Amino acid sequence: MKTIKKIILVAAVLVSTLGYAEKGKVLNTRTYAKIAVLEFENVKKGQQLFVKDAQDGIIYSETINTNGTLSKTFDLKELKDGKYTLELNKDFEIIIKPFEITNNQVVFLTSEATKQFKPLVVAENNQLRVSKLNLDNDAVKIEIFYDGDMIYSETVNNETIVNRVYQLSKLETGKYHTVVKAKDRSYINHFEI
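The structure assignment produced for this chain is given below.
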């Protein structure tokens, strides 16, 4: 009987949250004991959803297999009291929604929700373009590697829009990769010339 009541409650919460869509953001969050219901709009097949602990360890991961609105129910009964994050890893951004479990209750910390923009890296005609929206003006470190060896490194400070173009040698054909570091995250892109 308890299970049926929980299922009815979760269904009611899902129906009540559908009317609050806001494009490109977490639409709504509702919790009941250690059950959390989340909705995201404009998800695409191949994007990833993660639940991480305070040490950035992955507790749960899922690759999205549909386009449109994602409605997800999480049963968090196995998690201990502490801080966690729910992350939706999209094409050009990561939506981070922190939550805390205390005394068998889940509380989403909406004031701490953030969005991080991924860098765009394009290699074309022996030129490498690196762009990143950096609204917090944090330091952004760009490293370029050729066949595993670092050939260039630069740290960009206090720029809202990081936009760099690097000329690569026409004589050095082979495997390259970049590492762009910002806000305790590293973004790696592989390419060949």
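Interim note for the steering committee: The radius of gyration is 20 Å. The mean pLDDT is 82.
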